[in-house]
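During the first year of the project, the team set up a workflow for recording each protein of interest as an amino acid sequence followed immediately by a discrete structure-token representation. This format lets reviewers and collaborators read both layers of information side by side without switching files. As required by the reporting guidelines, we include two representative entries from the current panel. The first entry is reproduced here exactly as it appears in our internal archive.
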Amino acid sequence: MDILIEGYRQFRRQTWPGDRARYEALATWGQSPHTLVISCSDSRVDPQTVFGAVPGELFVIRNVAGLVPPYTPDAGYHGTSAALEYGVRVLGVSRVVVLGHAQCGGVRGMVEGVPPEAQDFVAPWVEIARPALAMPPPAHAHALTHYENEVVRLSLSNLLTFPWIAQPVEEGRLKLGGFRFDIHTGELSQLAESGFVPVS
């Protein structure tokens, strides 16, 4: 715990004095994030850092591989879907983006097999991405990169199975977007009609 407490002390010394007014305003007026981000839980990929955001701007959902499940309103536990519902219907975000990344362990597990220690929850969770594995990579493509990209596409497709996402998207009130972050190079690519294009 010491490393966390020391991090907090550093926050109080270096960050809090300059950001105090922002936090006080957020506490007084509540949050009003402009974007909901679905991202992997990978400790190397922090959406707030990648997008240069400050507290209060992003509503972030993180899970293994940054997956969005299809719309399934039943009695099961749906943490990602619950957070989507809150961000879109309660907070009223104006955009939803899926942030994939290079060297994703979740995607590697889908392709090569989930480690034996992660069979209780990870193995069934990554089954969501099974349709993405049906698209084999082109001969010239790196397989894991290809599947990392396909998982972003699949999650975006699954978002449209939620009626309260599909309708505002169709009406132009909500925008969807896909990105991929390369940990090694720090490069961000955005999904376009032609594929993932580096952000200049």
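The second entry, processed by the same pipeline in the following quarter, appears below.
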Amino acid sequence: MEKLLIIDDDKGIQKQLKWCLSDYEVVLADDRESAIAAVRRHEPKVITLDLGLPPDEANATEGLLALQEILTISPHTKVIVITGNDDRTNALKAISAGAYDFYQKPIDADVIGVIVARAFSVAAIETENRKMREVAGSDIGIIGNSEAIDRLRMMVKRIAPTQITALLLGESGTGKEVTANAVHIASDRSKKPFIAINCASIPENLLESELFGFEKGAFTGAHRATKGKIECAEGGTLFLDEIGDMPFSLQAKLLRFLQEKTIERLGGRQEIDVDVRVVCATNQNLEEMVAEKTFREDLFYRVSEITLNIPPLRDRDEDVLILAQYFLQMYATEYKRNVKSFSEDGLSAIKAHKWPGNIRELQNKVKSSVIMTTGTQVTAFDLGFFDHSDTEFELSLNLRTVREKAESLAIQKAYALAEGNMSKTSELLGVTRPTLYSLIEKYALTINES
């Protein structure tokens, strides 16, 4: 039961309120001193406070002082001020001082019950919001409470104000770009561009022009001078992902840019000054590549002035559920689904999985499950973890049950793959749209068209 502190020197009022508010664990106090002691000991989320406390029962002075002390000790506590029926002025003073609400005597059980219940509800929502902001690392976007992530956040905030070149190491899907963006957000360059480029995703013959830009006529099809990613990041941060895949022939040009802070566009002869912070990342072992002569040693030392290791999700046990809930709320809002939480088997499946694809895999799983689920909770079945889901589907010998479950699952999977497009869903299933709608209605599936 939630703890409710009632502060009133009138024993009759104490008994009446305790009877009215029997759904809560009531703690009583009859003066400012005992009230403050109760706040420190019990940490109630909601308090009812009579302003007329001894030794000055006729005035509100003592009650207002109690209010001030309570909010100093526990600023998020919801204090409901109770006053006489002709004491509206002091009630408004209390509201101005930070009280949540006020109620004028005589006591009405139904009315005070609603006010207190609403106060507990607001307190719970605010507590959850504060937790989410703290957990999500909302200031720089690195989500988690594990020791490894706390250490990563600390290092990001330390290096962000400097111009040091950072190298981010981690498996695919661990959040290297999120970390690079966190360095940008925490720096004094946060209002300037953050430009990311994946060196592995761009063909070797195009990567140089993509990075450094080109002049008109530099090659066939170069009809006008074009800035590269480095120039586009002027004043901000350039993130070079998968730098281990950068062609050896281009590494010397990148090294010169890092050392001199100047570039030349492809086909150009003019040196262009640039002011860009560089953050690099890779999931390869650059030291081994240096030994094998596939990565320049001088470039390695230049990009790794400081190295940040991003832990895989399997080493962040306490963060997995935090991240899962974060993504659940994000996608429930995005897709306008009434999904609130994970079921017990869903939570067990998330905790048991090793997440070889790291955060990217978790994010994709949760995203598809929010689309697929037909209730307010995401189950292991929705997440695609059939070993943890209800075994009735696998063990049932009733053909009708098997068919219903199989068809329901097929519809949900197709809908997820089609990203909410009903025409594409029907095409994937090989049925007409009217047939698809009929099946959705038959199995009472909750499907929201995008």
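For the second entry, the following points were noted during internal review. The domain at 314-442 is CATH 1.10.8.60 (Helicase, Ruva Protein; domain 3). The first helix runs from residue 11 to 20. Both points are flagged for discussion at the upcoming steering committee meeting.
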